[in-house]
Amino acid sequence: MGRATRSSILLLCLVVVCGGNLYQDLSITWGDGRAKIIGAGNLLTLSLDKFSGSGFQSKNEYLFGKIDMQMKLIPGNSAGTVTAYYWSSEGDGRDEIDMEFLGNLSGDPYTLHTNIYAQGKGDREQQFHLWFDPTADFHTYSILWNPSHIVISVDGIPVREFRNMESKGIPYPKNRPMRIYSSLWNADQWATRGGLVKTDWSRAPFVASYRSFKADACVWAAGRPAPCSISAANSARFSQKLDPPSLQRLKWVQRNYMIYNYCTDAKRFPYGLPPECSIS
Ligand SMILES: *[C@@H]1O[C@H](CO)[C@@H](O)[C@H](O)[C@H]1NC(C)=O
Questions:
Q1: Looking at 61, 96, 125, 276, which residue is catalytic?
Q2: Helix/strand/coil for 66
Q3: Of these four, 73, 124, 177, 279, which has the most CB atoms within 10 Å of its CB?
Q4: How far apart are CA 68 and CA 20, in angstroms?
Q5: Which domains does the chain have, with CATH numbers?
Q6: Known InterPro entries for this protein (predicted)?
Q7: Is the peptide bond before 205 cis (omega within 30 degrees of 0)?
């Protein structure tokens, strides 16, 4: 076990696996009725119109774990819209793990935009097209965050891994709990083809749907702490690296579906690529 893993055993939290009732796990945070949990709590919808977007967050904060959510993105012409789904800490110099889905004209591919912030420092964008139509059906989007690495996956296929490289002086999020957030908003200044394609408000409201929130994660239980069984090192959520088949799949995605990688954008970093880019 690495230094990071050992020290985190000292942190206090509680492991939960939950799923099913969205009323229990999520709170609507904004949008004046545009975000809704429906029926018995198995479906949540966010909507966006000319006046406002909407959003929700997880009730719990977590320190490490894996959260899966099924999402079905805005069908048809979604150009100009962004559906963001991310982990974030609070306060200054925040940690954040982002998935943002940038809409497009009907028939043109959605872009999955990702970024990772540690102690306020981001600029680690990677973008992907998907190998399926994310508006036709629900698919599972997951973010694993543990002391060793962060893995963003789609339908169980890893699209991005960010390893803990603290030993090489690269900050890694590990001290502050994070919450899950999601929001749907208008970003037609930049989202689609760099802002060339604007939101067509005659198509509003735009609706994205969510179901099957599953947190296999350590709840940060401020005030009522319980030791988190993070020492269960063989459990997948605390795995220290991708197994060979997962690594193969990651390579497949990166080879065939990655459309932007900050690590190869030499123009953007005239004084040299970020240090993590040269660590394999
Ligand atoms: C939209 O479609 C165009 C054309 O296929 C593609 O280049 C672009 O990456 C797509 N996504 C966004 C968000 O612009």
A1: 96
A2: strand
A3: 73
A4: 12
A5: 17-223+232-269 (2.60.120.200)
A6: Beta-glucanase-like, Beta-glucanase/XTH, Beta_glucanase, ConA-like_dom_sf, XET_C, XTH
A7: yes
